[in-house]
Amino acid sequence: MGEKNILDSIIDKLFAFDKNFVYVVLIALFGFVLRSLVALRTKFSADEMVHGTHAIGFISSGKLQIMDESAVWFWLTDFFMKVFGFNVFGIRFASIFFGTLAIIVVYLICKEVSSKEVGLIAAFISAISAYQLDMMEAGMDTTMVFFVLLSLYFFILSIRKESRFYFCLIWLSAGIAVMTKPIGLLFLAPLGLCSLYYHFYKSKSIKIKDYIFVIILLLLIFTPVLTFNYLLYKDKGILDLQFSRFTRISVDTYASIAPTIEGFSLTTLFVNNNGRNRPGFVEGFLFMHFQESIFILISALAGLFFMIKNKNKFIFIFIITFIVPFMFLAGTSLLPNHFVFTSYYAVIFAGYGIYNSSLFLKNKNHQKIFIYAIIILILITSYVKIDNGDSNGFLGSKNELGQMIDFKESSIDENAFILADSRIYRGRIAFMFWDKHYMEGNVFLGALANMDQIPGQEVPIDIYFVECVPDDCGWGGGKVTSDFNDSMENLVSVFGTQNNHVKTINDVYGKPYFNVYKKTVYLKSGIIPVADSLKEWFFYPLNYQPKNKVFDNYQTHTLYDKLLDQAAHAILYLIIILSGLLVILLIYLLHREG
Q1: What is the CA radius of gyration of the chain?
Q2: Can you give the residue ranges of every domain in the chain?
Q3: DSSP labels for 156-189?
Q4: Which of 61, 145, 330, 548 has CA atoms 20 to 30 A from the CA of 267?
Q5: Quick one: CA torsion of 487, 488, 489, 495, rounded to 10 degrees?
Q6: How confident is the model over 187-226, as pLDDT tens digits?
Q7: Cis peptide leading into 182, omega within 30 of 0?
């Protein structure tokens, strides 16, 4: 009898859920599945191999940040990789997870500015958005956009409910967005302007003490970044990349990547984007055109029209928080991942546009047919874009790196030596083999030429040689020259015999990408520690080990500095905890408000 009562209670609670809550959860789960499938198949970009590899070991490193990015995403990604494995799913899980949660925020925003019906339409469009799906990368942008959207949602709630609690959550979420990726500052500034505008518009006055509190809160949130730079400068006389760009202090430290760092330029924004003969703002809109379904963009324009026509009181915040980041990024940093936030604005407007367009039809059934027809068109065009993109569709094998990692973990002995074809992009080699003894092909050839300088006796060593079949595995830009290619082909001729072949790994198009060969070779035992000592990538040793090779680790020399460092770490850990609590709060608000 007792068990029956418990079961009845559970069933009653399940059926007590608001139907919209169930719909949104189902849409989010659908979005999670799509995001996971695309993440497993999409090939890796060069930037992913920088950021993703730098996330490995970040928690145990004790760092407050890395040289060019804030800490939150790296901490979370390292945590997710510890949970799901140091593989494609683990390294991209932050984008999958927060991209899924962003679907829920889209629904809640639309519900507050319009209706639940608009929210459901926008949420489903967000779930199937080609642009959002394509950005399931090992990068900070999708995670940052989630916290930006959350701050927008809290902003709307604070205005509607005149709630100080939600007012505080605006700045907490926006601050965490900045701590996820510094370009979150581009949203923080217009949020501040909108807050001042709405408060003055509503009460004809501004509560100065509220904004003093905001400044203090943000300074506390940014304490890890400020402390890192203060203590690093005090100990070594250098700053991180972002502070170095604006203060011109220690610019020589980052001279090797100076050509890749573009400052804001009005010429880039309005005249010529890096010789492409079109302005940066046009390039930004082209990202939307090429990455997103045309029916989402058309519906978004309709939604913008209806919002202005209906004098929706929140149109100002949408426009300002869109234009400011868009124009700044269009004048400095023209990469598709930086503009993914535009897709979330587009689906919000699209949901509003589709619903309001349907109201021109008087018959309720005709309205539903119209809405379903547009959604089907969006679904088809989004599928086509994904199918023609880097993932080559949703279904099939993992990308080539994912398969290589699976093979490594299942078939390569822990103490084996991996020789990687140098035609494989260095960041990819680092990500795939960071936990193994490995050496790049060109370095190995140099070691062979200087074997007399390597200590130890000759011993048999099992070598797994990984060949780049297409001759360029991620470098691009003609960096694999004919001489470079010939030197690697010489290695293939030594290791790549049919008798030594153990595995061929295909890319998502079914074409051979890696060949793996195994051969036992007599080499001096000292080559293993030599290889391990060379495991560095983009300024840092892999896994941040050994610590004495981490160029921006600092020492504290006074009690004050030590206490400041400890306080900054405590604040960073608190930010991570608060990030998790915001996720829980989001689900609670969906259940309560949905």
Answers
A1: 26
A2: 17-393+574-593, 400-549
A3: HHHHHHT-HHHHHHHHHHHHHHHHH-GGGHHHHH
A4: 145
A5: 120
A6: 999 999 999 988 777 766 678 888 999 999 999 999 999 9
A7: no
